[in-house]
Amino acid sequence: MGALSQWWRARRIERVSRMFSTRDWESAWEALPLLAGFDPETAERLETLALEFLRTKRIECVQGVALTATERLRIALQAALPVLELGLDWYRGWYAVIVYPEEFVPEREVMGDDGVVWIEQEAKSGESWEQGPVILSWADVAAGGRGEGYNVVIHELAHKLDMRAGAPNGCPPLHPGMSSADWQRDLAAAYADLCTRVEADEETAIDPYASESPAEFFAVTSEYFFEWPELLIETYPAVYAQLRAFYRQHPLARLAADA
Length: 259
Description:
Elements: H1 3-17, H2 22-30, H3 40-56, E1 58-61, H4 69-80, E2 96-100, E3 108-111, E4 117-120, E5 126-128, E6 134-137, H5 138-143, H6 152-162, H7 180-199, H8 214-227, H9 229-235, H10 237-247, H11 251-258
Parallel strand pairs: 1-2, 2-6
Antiparallel strand pairs: 3-4, 5-6
Helix pairs in contact: 1-3, 2-4, 3-4, 6-8, 8-9, 9-10
GO molecular function, one term: metallopeptidase activity
Protein name: Zinc-dependent peptidase
InterPro entries: MetalloPept_cat_dom_sf, MtfA_fam, MtfA_N
């Protein structure tokens, strides 16, 4: 990026930053225990990335949602977290976050393997479209970020990262030095274990929704990686190690240092 481009980018970010007060930032951080333990320099980088996210992605509220400045920051900070060490370019190619008040029902035609077409009417807390927006339920956004393993923002943004390699399949583009074979082996083994336990109607440490597909397994374990890393590393240590290499972060150490 040239000096002039950097200058214009900084100007645009500064313009966005004027929308938020110091108290807005404080309230957003206080509402998100999963962000504990960052040193001041890294926290500032995360805030800058969140502002850049807000500059490049429109947050569109529908069905009567009216987000406060703090609530917009809560979305942006959580969206910035997965790409803190990757860069916002990983979110290129889409431009909007649509926020519903609660779970929404996207009605669309779905064709089964047998060629039969039906209208899908399943209530969702979030959704990511290839080449399209991220859609969120504010009620579910508000329920996340507390270190309890549930985070619809991270879940849907993990799908977006997965889509960088095409249709979501649980394997985003890996960095140089990461082994695709090792990734597939470690995540497939954990996914198979979870599916076996779910089919046996066992109680599982990880949300059983992760057994829906490899793509959902990646998105759900990404939630745990940032929200409840202790549980993920106890349950599937090899998955934690792979996600640590991919996200280039170590939430377990960061949160433990803050405890």
